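Problem: given the chain below (484 residues), write out its structure.
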Amino acid sequence: MGKDKSSVNQNKNISLFDSLTPVVLLVLLLYINVNIYGDSSIDGSNQFILLIGAALAYLVGFKNNVSAELIFENVSKNIKSISSPIIILLLVGALSGTWLISGIIPSMIYYGFNIINASFFLPSCVIISAIVALATGSSWSTSATIGIALIGIGKALGFDIGIVAGAVISGAYFGDKMSPLSDTTNLAAAVSGSDLFEHIKYMTITTVPTICVALIFFVIYNLINLPDENLNNVDYIESINDYFYISPILFVVPLIVIFMIYKKINPIVSLFVGTILAAVFSLIFQSELISNIIIQNSSSDVTSYNIVMDSIIAKTTIQTNSVFLDELLTSGGMSGMLNTIWLVICAMIFGGVMEAIGALRSISLALLSIAKSTINLFASTVLSCITVNITASDQYLSIVIPGKMFSDSYNDRKLSSLNLSRTIEDSGTVTSVLIPWNTCGAYQATVLNVSVYDYFVYAIFNWLSPITTLIVASLNYKIKRIAN
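Solution.
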């Protein structure tokens, strides 16, 4: 009996040309689409372009006798893998809405504006974000809590939000990388067979110089480009008191959320608790604000319940006498996250097809084949991590796939597994946020309300990390080897 094409051996390697074709065409189409649509490309056109990329990858798989059943099974597995991130995205939207209506974010902005020195604001963003991420082990939670407030303070001080986001992301990913609580840090150590704390210690060789360079940049940039004192903004920030009850007691909620994440309580649970507590706080502390919103609303059926629930699920803007404050005191709620979720799902469909047809494996093997020297091995690992981030759109796969593929090569060259774990962190974990359709890039852009293209250049720590790891490797500086 003849063998059906759908049952052929799926382990067959497809050619490098076939593997790269969908990637090159996808990047080209996305470039054209973004040039036409600009920032609104995330509203749907980019999502469809990713589906076109998935269709092209599917045709490549069909050409190479990869069964449709295998492809769709892998796509389903990929989408299932992002169920938790999708819930987190929805809850972050809910959190931002309730933290606005409860006065938490306005209080952060009010006190931060009055406490943080404008001449040291950008490096302060790096340091504060790094401390929070180090304590929680999560760059995502850092952006969703203190990151939102820092963006608001930066706007009030007159800074471009792209550079503020770059400073927040640089600090957040430094703290995430160096935290023993971080899932990616634990994953990098596990997949390479390294001890967790040895891995963290070894990462300081590349990570500390990189964050120092980033800090020096932000210090110099801050001093040279210090915004002119804007008396109107000072008055506007002071007028927040006219609309909200401002008090340090409101910080109880974010402190509880950060403590829960620090104690390794599931982030979904932590964010949900933070949302509910903030909703309760809004009824307790912002009753006057809610009453004013009800009065402003023409419908007599609107109640406090409607106001709080709407802050969770829909766009909320606190109406003031200032356009500046109206823009500052705005949240998209859960509905504001839907475009990002849509983008992530389409990206994972493309990544699922690419993985199923063997394209990711083929690209990694091609990079591995040119790793004839130690520096080439490091360079191939870096390129593999970045390629997986672009194609699979998933931070975890950018750690797992190169980690598995390159493990034997490091061992054969008598290089400690710590070299592999550090390199995949330096090039996989941190570069995910630089790709607009990657789960991390889409998340950070939505939460901080700034496009990846606007913060890309200023996320110094993130794009400099893979360069630093290659410089260290080329200098053969403290390259740990296996004793004979």
